[in-house]
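Can anyone check this?
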Amino acid sequence: MTTDRFYGGVHGRLENLREMLSFVAETNPGKNDLVSWVIANTSAGSEDAVKKHLGFIEGIDQIRREGGVYRLGDHGQEYHQNPEAAVLYDALTSGVKGFRTLLRGLDDGPMTDEDIMDLLVATYDECEMTTPGPALRHREWLQAIGYVHRKDGVNRITDEGRSALGSVSDQERIEDLQRELRQSDMRCVPHGPQRLTESVYPAVQSAYPTLCDDDYRCEDAHEGGKDQAEWKHAIRNVLNQLADDNQSRVQRHDEHGAWMFTPRFKPGKRYRRAELHDKYDGQEQSGISPSRKVPVVFIFTGDTGELYGYEDEFENDGTFLYTGEGQVGDQTMDRGNKAVKQHQQDSRELHVFEKDTGGLVTYLGQYVYVDDYPETLPDKNEEDREAIKFELRPVEEIEVETEVDLPEGNQNPKRKKTTSTSPERNDELVRDLKRLYDDTCQLCGDRRLQGDDIGYSYVHHIKPLGKPHSGPDVPGNVIVLCPNHHDDFDNGMLTVNPESLEILHEYEDDLTGESVTEKRGHDLEPEYLAYHNQTIVNE
């Protein structure tokens, strides 16, 4: 699924591509000659970066190397003779997966770059993006040919893009089914042990009837495929992928092909505890309640526990310190305590609830055992005893799309008197931006650490606050950077295209051609990037 850019940003790359194809058609250049032409006629500054970009152009058959010289590929000849968007779109979709999938996703509604990344990851097994960089490159090509319009960080399909979609193919329906199953974590299948033929296939077919077409067979989809409905083959693929994911509800149950589906709960939702135990089993009065129906250990915490010698607490980093079971005397590592400690080797999940009034409990999330240690605490009779304290960590931060209301900032930041007069930064803006990007560099995607999983980043003013620049302290003038790229930005070692956000780095070829990452609610203002490029870089 590798996609790369070409020079000229979103708005100029097609002109550069067409001119290069004309040069290739007229001269059949060697590799060095073609690289030299690109450097002389575009913003390219590095031979290695040019070769990287040319590799992608060759991959979509615009050019091909034969006998030491470059000629136009079949798609390149067609685009050279007929430079229409539809011709280049055909080349892109023939050479790289994901372009049509992206358009189909946008046909359902607007998407951010993060949404596009999630769509591609959920659709393709080989796609392992953790940042939107590769998704950006897909989106930019579709922008360049006029099939996608981007404004305020949101991408929308154009009328031309919608026309290019046409009808949905059988294979695309299979991709849709796989994506739905991955994204939902097979939510349509009931909890508990389930067999493919008797339970899983019927549940999926009932939930997605239009995507389960018995007439589309494996032998139609794959060379040497069996005479079986392809949607069933797709389900088996998804099951195996999810079972390899420690955070999925899908587990392999036995050697006979049964699958275990653990329950899923919504963080913050209140449940009636009695109904939980009716459905999943477990002791209704215990703080630790292993289920005998599904591989789950329920943990219940609450203020009333202090009456019985329990002291539970949440630390700032999300760690949950939970007191083991046993109201009187020293606690021992058996029964519920043993179930917590050994939950991973027993292939059980830990789900934590907080006790409320009226028999209700609020779901806090899924946790994992990290460590345990003894601690002296009073028991139910207020006598000191040795209790077990479990250190539990959340399996993952609750994935909620981060929306930070950034303060408006100040167009004319006040000066505060110290030994010299310096601009007064908006500390709230700095904190909110670091939180929005989770201390991740907007240029390279690196997240530096100070201590145990505590992020470290700089918030840099693109047009500096100090004189003679007197830049504003507003969100559009600040960018989150790692220490290295903070220094590079400060020293004018890179530029950012104000329109396309494409990076040109003085010495990092791998970064040149990439785009700055933006999160929803934070857009860099072109005027400050232009000021940096024209003034700071030339200082």
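Reply from J.R.: I decoded it. The longest helix spans residues 9-27.
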